[in-house]
């Protein structure tokens, strides 16, 4: 072993190279590491030579095809002295041999992150490194962090190492990578920071075991105590404690030995090496070893004073029984040994629930179990607020859908739509009814919804030959295309501006009504205070409009209000919307969204945001119809918000494509060849000729 | 963490391949005439169950026999008798061989030496842990150089075995080493070698574990027999699923509990969580470790297997892990949420509380996704972030489940 100090494992100025650097995990971890400490000089991955992993505000990571090429190509002051191995299990041995063959005189330490490396290869790695004078940690280590130098290898600290690891005097050595982070977080509550966080890995053979690390911690000037997380399996702790006793180590140890529940059960814990085989390898045996070494019983929070008195005498450390006792045990140890805290303790370790909904269960629980949501620490609080804006809609499952569908099936005999036989739909229902089934995933609830959808489709058929979508069909006819091309041309000529306004209107309605408790959009009694909603919306709209105007920017209009033709009166109406409105009135039906839209148009005028009452146009009417159908499904979380938002545009597109087909048929029969071409004389060039 | 091989597998597949001397044997079902013939030739035999048990669990079932009619009966009887809760695959009759000495030898990877080592004792035939250390010798075997006859002989000399016997047995130990290293074993124990003063040697009981991560073990070209296990269908299904990919952990061990269904993340975290639950009466159904940044599909199926086997009976669903380093919380929680949703779609609603604690990349997206689904399913919940210790969350869950909650009914629907 070459290591003489913890600094030798990792310190500022070390240069790191990463094997299989383009792999899923290696590239993600390397990206964060580079942002944190910028210590990666390159990586290698077979067949990926010449690539670069770009890193904002730090060195990009160049990728080489082979390790020897990396060593040849990097200048001397960028050649790596630390290697992280992320190779697949069967490639680890070969990659380490490559590192040893080509990294002599430069590389001193190898960290094998890879899991599932065979024990034979693991033993060979250690022997090879012993012969060649390399240090090796792993396999299945998460990595190491030197907190004072702000450098790491591997994924210790996850995405935000500086959040978990504050500089301090505790050296963490753990069989579990995750526990390095967890214990570092706990220690903050005791006012203790971390000097080094070391994940040893817990395969059957630990390549740099505790007996080699503990002396380094003992000698490290920035370390005042060692905190251990220990699992069953192996005699590593026994050997380390024998050494500590023999050498008279002075720095205290805090230890948590996990896995006693699995003793004598034959249960295999998560790590490959956590297997009880032989004496002194069970959790209970390890607990006894530590207790004997410390000369004090396991920490009992209720006996803190007595523990401090005992620790003042023994001064070797103490074992804890549950991990959150780490904080009071550390405090007791610091008090007993007269050690100062590294910083003012952070917030105490208590239950801090972020989100709670116990529903009726809370009535059956004792009061101390009914928790209340605490303030969520930043940045999580702000992120959560952003994400929980709307609670409407279903969250669907995701899976590869190449030959999978919820919407349709065919067992060789019966084509089905969401499980409903197509032939039965043909016999029983209308096209619109079947179409709505296909779009919603379930049959509509009310007969009148079919009628209203049909009216919407008819309203969408046309707005005359001058509309962009009709022009699309006519252009296709004029060019001599087939009907399907003309229909595509129609669909290609509609978009977020022409026809897509309904999506914005649907978003507006979901945003406004999503904050209410409304369930049934057809029940006037269930409707919220629409005037209040309209008033609030218009007030905000006016503010946005004023701010935009002041900034000289265009402002976002209220979607689906106004019409270029029907705009001459003090109060304006779109006749197509009127048809839907009148149908509802005749049938004694109510649609809260349509009602709201009319009140909104009125409120805009009342608050002088507009000079007249704009028409609630056909797009708004169509949107209100579709949102009426969708709303109960959104509330019941049977429909996604995304799908609900698409329904108005789908309806318009469906109607308009049929209209486009009509324009095509007419134009093809009666038009002259190329009659849609604009004569050169009518075309204007707005630039300047340059040659 | 490896494929276990018993004596019969050794006798049938390995002994002759590596030239290790073994007694003759026949395997049930065996015609009466052959039994008669063998027992007459051998002078006696031993009926053993073909079962994989730890320690020396078979000892109570083994029967010596010299009458073929008794052998017929015993073979059937032993094949049908559970050993340490496990059903034998079959039974076999092995030749009785004489012994002046019973020797123990084991080759395993040694955590003290960080290399393979050979342990030998002349006090074989008993549980080796009961033999005093002074009666055992352990020597390292170079992982590259291997074990040589001189080293093996030295070990035997140290125990007091000299002369021709020493040389003959040393050669047998080298063959054991050859088998160990050539087949990618994790450990290999022969206990005992039966040895006569005249120099006859037989390997008379055997157990070994193959390292499933070792290419050699996978490429042996041997189809090992499947043993009836006392693994639950849940553990069996998860083990097969875990073996299907290295991407992300899917490790479970049944604990026989009845209350908390724990989806846990991180090898260390899962251990301390289950420990806390067990100490405080949380009665966890199983131990799990689903860390290692599993992709969506992997996590979803993992969760689906857990739900399929245990959700209907569970009193509380616990989704808990420390602050992840790599594992994407948004991906894993979306997968769990979707698996839960699909389970409910198939089996109907369930109103057990869900306790969640986690930290790591994509945390808020993961929390929001899961919360939405739980709201959708009307399941009560409490979410904790990384600022609450996982052991405290586990303690809270244990306390929550100790309250007499009406299962699968009541409010919140």
Short description:
Helix content of chain A is 43%, strand content 11%. Chain A is built from 24 helices and 18 strands. The radius of gyration of chain A is 36 Å and the shape is elongated.
Structural account:
The complex is a heterodimer of chains A (691) and B (413). Chain A has 691 residues and is of the alpha/beta class. Chain A contains 24 helices and 18 strands. In chain A, a hairpin with a 4-residue loop joins strand 16 and strand 17. Chain B is built from twelve helices and 17 strands. Chain B has helices spanning 7-14, 32-42, 68-79, 149-158, 163-182, 215-218, 233-243, 267-279, 296-310, 329-347, 363-376, 390-402, and strands spanning 3-5, 25-27, 45-50, 63-65, 90-95, 101-110, 115-121, 136-140, 185-195, 201-203, 206-210, 251-254, 260-265, 286-289, 316-323, 354-359, 381-384. In chain B, strands 1, 6, 7, 8, 9, 10 and 11 form a seven-stranded antiparallel beta sheet that branches. In chain B, strand 15, helix 10 (329-347) and strand 16 (354-359) form a beta-alpha-beta unit. The chains are: A alpha/beta (691), B alpha+beta (413).
Q: What topology does this entry show?
A:
The complex is a heterodimer of chains A (691) and B (413).
Chain A lengths: L5 H4 L6 E4 L4 H14 L2 E5 L7 E2 L7 E4 L2 H7 L8 E4 L3 H15 L5 E4 L6 H14 L2 E3 L5 E4 L4 E4 L6 H4 L2 E8 L2 H12 L5 E6 L10 H10 L5 E6 L5 H12 L5 E5 L25 H12 L9 H11 L2 E4 L5 H12 L15 E5 L22 H8 L20 E3 L4 E3 L2 E2 H7 L2 H10 L6 H14 L7 H11 L4 H10 L8 H13 L16 H21 L24 H13 L4 H15 L11 H18 L5 H30 L21
Parallel strand pairs in A: 1-2, 1-5, 2-4, 5-6, 6-7, 10-11, 10-12, 12-13, 13-14
Antiparallel strand pairs in A: 3-4, 8-9, 8-11, 16-17, 17-18
Chain B lengths: L2 E3 L1 H8 L10 E3 L4 H11 L2 E6 L12 E3 L2 H12 L10 E6 L5 E10 L4 E7 L14 E5 L8 H10 L4 H20 L2 E11 L5 E3 L2 E5 L4 H4 L14 H11 L7 E4 L5 E6 L1 H13 L6 E4 L6 H15 L5 E8 L5 H19 L6 E6 L3 H14 L4 E4 L5 H13 L11
Parallel strand pairs in B: 13-15, 15-16, 16-17
Antiparallel strand pairs in B: 1-11, 2-5, 3-4, 3-5, 6-7, 6-9, 7-8, 9-10, 9-11, 12-14
Helix pairs in contact in B: 2-3, 4-5, 7-9, 8-12, 9-10, 10-11
């Amino acid at each position: 072993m070459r290591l003489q100090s913890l600094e030798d494992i990792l310190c500022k100025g070390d240069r790191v190279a990463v094997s299989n650097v383009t792999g899923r995990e290696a590239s993600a971890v390397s990206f964060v590491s580079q942002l944190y400490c910028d210590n990666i000089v390159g990586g290698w991955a077979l067949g990926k030579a010449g690539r670069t992993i770009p890193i904002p505000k730090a060195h990009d990571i160049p990728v080489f095809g082979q390790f020897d090429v990396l060593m040849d190509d990097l200048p001397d002051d960028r050649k790596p002295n630390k290697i992280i191995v992320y190779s697949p299990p069967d490639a680890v041995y070969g990659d380490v041999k490559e590192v040893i063959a080509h990294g002599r005189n430069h590389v001193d330490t190898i960290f094998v992150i890879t899991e599932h490396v065979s024990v034979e290869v693991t033993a060979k790695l250690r022997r090879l490194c012993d012969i060649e004078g390399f240090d090796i940690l792993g396999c299945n280590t998460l990595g190491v962090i030197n907190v004072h130098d702000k450098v790491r290898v591997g994924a210790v600290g996850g995405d935000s190492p500086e959040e978990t690891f504050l500089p301090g005097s505790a050296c963490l050595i753990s069989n579990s990578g995750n526990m390095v982070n967890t214990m570092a977080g706990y220690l903050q509550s005791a006012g203790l920071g971390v000097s080094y966080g070391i994940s040893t890995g817990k395969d059957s053979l630990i390549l740099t075991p505790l007996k080699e690390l503990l002396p380094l911690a003992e000698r490290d000037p920035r370390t005042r105590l060692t905190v251990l997380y220990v699992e069953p399996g192996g005699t590593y702790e026994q050997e380390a404690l024998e050494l500590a006793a023999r050498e008279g180590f002075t720095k205290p140890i805090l230890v948590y030995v996990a896995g006693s529940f699995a003793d004598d059960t034959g249960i295999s814990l998560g790590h490959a090496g956590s297997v009880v085989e032989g004496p002194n390898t069970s959790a209970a045996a390890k607990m006894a070893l530590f207790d004997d070494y410390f000369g004090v019983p396991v920490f009992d929070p209720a006996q803190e004073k007595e523990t401090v008195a005992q620790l003042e005498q023994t001064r070797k450390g103490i074992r804890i029984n549950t991990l959150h006792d780490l904080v009071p045990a550390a405090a007791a140890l610091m008090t007993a040994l007269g050690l100062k805290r590294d910083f003012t303790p952070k917030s105490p370790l208590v239950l801090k629930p972020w989100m709670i909904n116990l529903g009726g269960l809370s009535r059956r629980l004792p009061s101390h179990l009914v928790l209340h949501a605490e303030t969520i620490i930043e940045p999580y609080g702000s992120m959560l607020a952003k994400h929980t804006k709307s609670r409407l809609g279903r969250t669907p499952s995701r899976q590869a859908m190449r030959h999978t569908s919820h919407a349709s099936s065919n067992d060789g005999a019966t084509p089905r739509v969401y499980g409903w036989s197509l032939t039965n739909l043909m016999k029983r229902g209308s096209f619109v009814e079947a179409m709505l089934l296909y779009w919603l995933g379930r049959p509509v609830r009310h007969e009148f919804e079919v009628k209203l959808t049909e009216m919407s489709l008819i309203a969408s058929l046309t707005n005359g030959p001058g509309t962009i979508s009709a022009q699309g069909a006519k252009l296709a006819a004029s060019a001599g295309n087939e009907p399907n091309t003309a229909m595509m041309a129609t669909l290609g000529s509609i978009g977020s501006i022409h026809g897509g306004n309904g999506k914005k209107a649907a978003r507006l309605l979901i945003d406004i009504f999503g904050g209410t408790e409304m369930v049934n959009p057809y029940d006037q009694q269930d409707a919220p205070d629409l005037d209040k909603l309209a008033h609030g919306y218009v007030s905000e709209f006016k503010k946005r409009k004023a701010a935009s105007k002041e900034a000289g920017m265009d402002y976002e209009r209220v979607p689906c209000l106004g019409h270029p033709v029907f705009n001459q009166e003090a109060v304006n109406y779109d006749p197509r919307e009127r048809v839907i409105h009148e149908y509802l009135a005749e049938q004694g039906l109510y649609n809260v969204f349509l009602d709201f839209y009319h009140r909104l148009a009125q409120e805009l005028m009342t608050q002088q945001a507009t000079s007249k009452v704009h028409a609630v146009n056909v797009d708004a009417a169509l949107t209100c119809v579709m949102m009426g159908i969708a709303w109960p499904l959104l509330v019941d979380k049977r429909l996604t918000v995304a799908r609900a938002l698409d329904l108005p545009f789908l309806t318009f597109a469906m109607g308009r494509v049929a209209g486009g087909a009509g324009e095509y048929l007419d134009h093809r029969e009666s038009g002259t060849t190329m009659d849609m071409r604009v004569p050169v004389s009518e075309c204007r060039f707005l630039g300047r000729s340059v040659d | 963490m490896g494929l276990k091989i018993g004596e019969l597998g050794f006798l049938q597949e390995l002994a002759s391949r590596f030239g290790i001397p073994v007694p003759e044997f026949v395997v049930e079902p065996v015609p009466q005439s052959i039994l008669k013939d063998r027992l007459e030739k051998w002078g006696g035999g031993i009926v053993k169950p073909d079962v994989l048990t730890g320690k020396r669990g078979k000892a109570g079932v083994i029967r010596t026999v010299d009458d073929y009619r008794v052998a017929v009966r015993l073979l059937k009887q032993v094949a049908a008798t559970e050993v340490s809760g496990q059903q034998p695959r079959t039974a076999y009759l092995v030749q009785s061989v004489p012994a002046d000495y019973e020797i123990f030898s084991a080759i395993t990877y040694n955590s003290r030496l960080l290399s393979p080592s050979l342990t030998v004792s002349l006090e074989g035939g008993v549980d080796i842990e009961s033999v005093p250390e002074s009666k055992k010798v352990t020597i390292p075997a170079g992982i590259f150089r291997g074990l040589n006859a001189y080293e093996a002989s030295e070990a035997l000399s140290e125990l007091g075995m000299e002369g021709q016997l020493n040389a003959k047995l040393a050669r047998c130990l080298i063959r054991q080493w050859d088998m160990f290293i050539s087949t990618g074993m994790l450990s290999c124990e022969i206990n005992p070698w039966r040895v006569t003063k005249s120099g006859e040697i037989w390997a008379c009981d055997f157990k070994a574990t193959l390292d499933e991560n070792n290419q050699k073990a996978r490429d042996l070209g041997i189809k090992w027999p499947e043993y009836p296990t006392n693994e639950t269908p849940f553990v069996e299904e998860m083990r097969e699923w875990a073996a299907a990919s290295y991407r992300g952990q899917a490790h479970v061990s049944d604990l026989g509990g009845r209350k908390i269904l724990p989806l846990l993340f991180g090898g260390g975290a899962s251990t301390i969580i289950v420990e806390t639950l067990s100490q405080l009466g949380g009665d966890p159904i199983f131990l799990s470790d689903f860390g290692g940044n599993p992709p969506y599909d992997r996590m979803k199926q993992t969760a689906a297997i857990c739900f399929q086997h245990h959700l209907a009976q569970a009193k509380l669903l616990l989704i808990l892990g420390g602050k992840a380093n790599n594992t994407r919380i948004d991906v894993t929680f979306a997968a769990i949420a979707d698996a839960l949703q699909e389970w409910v779609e198939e089996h109907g609603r369930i109103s057990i509380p869900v306790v969640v604690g986690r930290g790591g990349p994509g945390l808020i997206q993961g929390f929001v996704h899961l919360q939405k689904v739980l709201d959708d399913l009307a399941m009560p919940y409490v979410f904790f972030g990384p600022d609450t210790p996982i052991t405290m969350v586990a303690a809270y869950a244990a306390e929550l489940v100790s309250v007499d909650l009406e299962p699968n009914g009541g409010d919140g629907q």
